[in-house]
Amino acid sequence: MTTTLTLPATPRRIADLPAPPGLPLLGNLLQLKPEDFHNQLEHWAGKLGTPYRLQAGPRLITVWSDTELMQAVLRERPERYRRTREIEDVLSEMGGNGLFSVEGAAWKPQRRLVMQALAATHFRGFFPTLHAITERLYRRLLRAAVAGEVLDMGRELKRYTVDVTCALAFGQDPNTLEQEGDVIQDHLELIFPMIMQRIANPFAYWRVFRLPKDRRLDRGLKVVHAYVREMMGKARQRMRDDPCETPRNLLEAMLAVRDEPDSQISDDDVAANVLTLLLAGEDTTATSLAWTMPYLAADTALQSRLHAQARDIFGTEAVCPTHDDLRHLDLFEALTTEATRLHPIAAINSVEPLQDVVLDGVEIPKGTRMFFINRPALRDSRHFAQAERYDPERWTRDRHEGAGGAQAHNPRAFLQFGAGPRVCPGRHLAGVEIRLVLSMLMRHFEIELACDPAEIKEVLAFALTPSKMPVRLKARMA
Ligand code: HEM
């Protein structure tokens, strides 16, 4: 099916779409605060429906929230639609045009590169490392619980995902859970927000002059790229000195694919994809986990049930003992799926058509920015029975088991990992990390939020992040 099927006798044009009132020249620019952008788009969607248009300075943006339409468009990539062009422009000039941003004919070989690398390092082989890093997190949290410390849980979880992602990517574990200040991580912390700022900025001033923050970024990028190249050199050396049938990490797996005849992959592509995996894998998973904390804290009965379940599975072990046991932890992953339904960490997915199309009876010229906002469907009672309620078990019930014609859950409306050929290739790894961390937490601790939940605000950064997540843990005796 193509998205051009709906062709009414007189299609509407973009100018006919409803729009929020704005100022001459600036349009709606002053109403759009970067950290609150998603809320503003959702607020207008509530008033204007879908689709609508807005003007952010020189940029015309159309905004959409119909699930089936978004599904159909996402599935027609990369031939008919691409991500909005700023994403590729900004990441290319930083030497990071990897799988997330690459477009056109270059996308397919890179997708193959990353998928093969993720499959080759298969998680069963990686499980002992994941197990060890989860145990390390357990020890760190236990120390904090005994000392009665309030933890910044966003930060703790980020340390965990950084250690996991780096260990998988390079085979080198930075151990940020036990030691401060990893050089690469410190630079990445600077690079991520700058990527977002540049993509969102309608005026690409940095191509004309550099502010101090742009010069800092240049220095950070230089260090990170030098590090990635050094890692590539070491990986090649190790592959020569100690050949191994199964690649020991993603970098080795990607270098093996790159060296295949006709791979259409260069060393620059491998380097860009190392950066992409670090970028795409850390904040997303840590933030999804962080949003789960307030819901667990609010329901001690749920915590008790999860504690009993984890204790049965773990036996005498501190964390989930084997890769096979992960499959008994569906409900633990559902805790986060449900939290990110209510706080979609991937709040917006943006695309543009590569040719003129007609969508929902509207003529959309090639290159028009289309922003897909995910939350309206996620809180729609047609897709989720009692949509405002945190109910993780909805994901383990049959999807049609809702009340009054509603569905328990509609997986098509859950676009947290995207859809179609460009669906997130890291979702399985994220699921494994989520199962391991939440089962360990529930096995050993009672969770309390150390602030009023109403104080926690959503901040749109790379992911939709909680403004804070102070948590107090109480160690369980049994
Ligand atoms: C809970 C955690 C995560 C969430 C919510 C998430 C979400 C997303 C979303 C929404 C997309 C865009 C999909 C689309 O356009 O259809 C995406 C793409 C991507 N993700 Fe994830 N992600 C997560 C974890 C990860 C991890 C752990 C990795 C790798 C280690 C990863 C690597 C990527 C890459 C490389 C892409 C680009 C794929 C392409 O364009 O072909 N993600 N992710």
Topology:
Elements: E1 12-13, H1 37-48, E2 52-56, E3 59-64, H2 67-75, E4 81-83, H3 85-93, H4 107-120, H5 123-146, E5 150-152, H6 153-170, H7 183-200, H8 212-241, H9 250-258, H10 267-281, H11 283-297, H12 300-314, H13 330-342, E6 348-353, E7 357-359, E8 362-364, E9 369-373, H14 375-378, H15 427-444, E10 445-449, E11 458-460, E12 464-466, E13 470-475
Parallel strand pairs: 1-8, 3-9
Antiparallel strand pairs: 2-3, 4-6, 5-13, 6-9, 7-8, 10-13, 11-12
The structure holds protoporphyrin IX containing FE.
Residues 74, 99-100, 111, 114, 165, 276-277, 280-281, 284-285, 288, 345-346, 349, 416-420, 422-426, 429-430 line the site of protoporphyrin IX containing FE (HEM).
Would you mind describing this structure in some detail?
The protein is an alpha+beta fold and 478 residues long. It contains 15 helices and 13 strands. A hairpin with a 3-residue loop joins strand 11 and strand 12 (464-466). Helix 4 crosses helix 9 (250-258). It is globular and about 70 Å long. The model has no long low-confidence stretch (mean pLDDT 93). Bound molecules: protoporphyrin IX containing FE. Protoporphyrin IX containing FE is lined by residues 74, 99-100, 111, 114, 165, 276-277, 280-281, 284-285, 288, 345-346, 349, 416-420, 422-426, 429-430.
